[in-house]
Amino acid sequence: PRHRLGKGQAHIAHIAKQTGLYYSRCKVVNSTKYNGMYFCNSGVVYLDYNLMKCSEEFIDTVILHELIHSICKNHDKRFYATMSRYGTERAVAVDKENIGYNGNREL
Q: What's the pTM?
């Protein structure tokens, strides 16, 4: 349904405004390989269509993760320090468990 596309757009706009992190555009696509992806050269964020079926907390965590790539390209200590600054301890734990370290698509 079309409302899922708007949900992703609304989430990313809100989080980017809250954090001041940059993105140029957000595209919601059907992916079997990732929940989200940030292209550093263009600032485009891709979110998986199926991500919109997940909890608000998980959606927000994925979006925050992708937006942090606007200032930290790698999943290193600096990345997670930045994640801690902008997110909650829970968001950092969810990110490490599901996104950053193992790359699994566990939802």
A: 0.82
First and final CA of the chain: distance in angstroms?
Answer: 20
Please write the tens of the pLDDT for every residue from 14-56: 999 999 999 999 998 888 888 899 999 999 999 998 888 888 8
Element (H, E) at 93: helix 89-95
List Cβ<8 Å contacts ≥24 apart for 99-105. 99/35, 99/36, 99/61, 99/62, 99/65, 100/65, 100/75, 101/75, 105/33, 105/34, 105/35
